Please model this.
Amino acid sequence: MFDVWKNVLAEVEQEIPHAAFSTWFTGVTLISVEDGVVTVGVPNVLKVKQLEVKYNDSVKTALRNNGVDFKEVRYIVHTRAKTKPKSREVTGEPITIKKKKLSIPKRKSGEFQTGLNPRYTLDNFVIGSNNDLAVSVAKSVVENPGKKANPFFLYSGPGLGKTHLVQAIGNALLARDPSLKILYIPISHFYSDFINSIQNKTSEEFTKKFRKLDVLIVDDFQFIVGKDRSQEEFFHIFNDLYQLNKQIIVTSDRLPSQIKTVDERLASRLTWGNAIDLQMPSFEDKCAILKSKAEFMGAEIEDEAVEYLADNVRTNIRDLEGELNHLLAIADLKNITPLEVINDGYINTVKTPHMQTLSPKKILEKTAKYYDLTVKEMCSKSRVSHIKNARQVAMYLLSEELEMSTPKIAREVGVKDHTTVMHGIKKIKNDLKLNFNLREQIAGIRERLYE
Ligand code: ADP
Ligand code: MG
Model:
């Protein structure tokens, strides 16, 4: 019966928007089926109410579709922590594990398993200045797999959309040509599968399975471990597929050359095609993403509330989504609008603690240090190019991270005229579009700001 419940959840997951599913069905378990009563355990009262009012029909339909005979469904408060201490929702994370297992459309046995999650599409990936380059490469991969950008290496810090984008490529390719053999696999699974295959003496089959692929998507490459047999195996598979002009897509939190355990030849080959990064979204990008997510969930949210979240969540898109869900959940519970939730002080915890401690001084110090300068040197009148560059990066970060006005920034960095600051910021913004070194630098400094 509990297996059936997994299928029921998987079906509901396909039926309702992703964000709604992860908000309302995280930690929802089956407790019992007795005398025609299905009892469902739900982590809190808010969710009970929501399930009863909004999702009862979906749950009932899914139960029926899975052959469960019942008269009634009851939702009760029940925390799963007591019964399954290892489950993920204890940590409050969205149910990413379920994503993988449950939402893959069931295929008949023998049919090829892609590992792709159909919920990640290019349509629901919001394009902004932080990712437009990556999206255009993604689209060219979809148009011409194996030809244009091969391998396509996509990198960024966590929660900025790597998994979403590469899975969306896979789904788009599959939609165009369902006969394509596409495999999405996190590198850690590649490893464990390979090691299992050695233990079970099936490594030949393992290799064959990979060499048959048309498209290989490897996620979280940074978790590749030592230069052992599995890395060698990966290298061989990579070379074989590459020579056959098969599309290879790899994501990582940094460039391969920065991962110590990666063999140099492999590292250089991975970036032969296109190595593109995803950046933190700007304020406008964040607003666009929030609006799109809210719309997708069918939720109403005021512009001011969107702006509040965009302004306050500065870590990544995953957190942005989490805060949106949190806000909408409270609005629903209190039966007030999201903006009222904010104004009434229900979510004053959004501001992440490091945001509150970030000061202009810290930005200047960290930026100067990054470029091996003292703050005094950086804020001097020197026109030596690397000093000027550091100064302009500092201006850019003061503006982006603290939203300081240009006259204020001018005072901080010791320039007379605020138009110099405007030019400086504009220059960095422009350069960021194509200068990958600069992107690395700024990402590096940002990381240090929020350590
Ligand atoms: P990463 O793999 O880089 O850690 P994910 O791909 O898991 O990040 O993205 C984190 C969350 O943010 C996901 O729910 C994803 O759908 C969402 N997300 C990221 N970028 C975008 C975007 N441009 N538009 C819409 N959703 C996005
Ligand atoms: Mg990911």
Remarks:
- The chain has four domains: 2-81, 132-277, 283-350, 358-449.
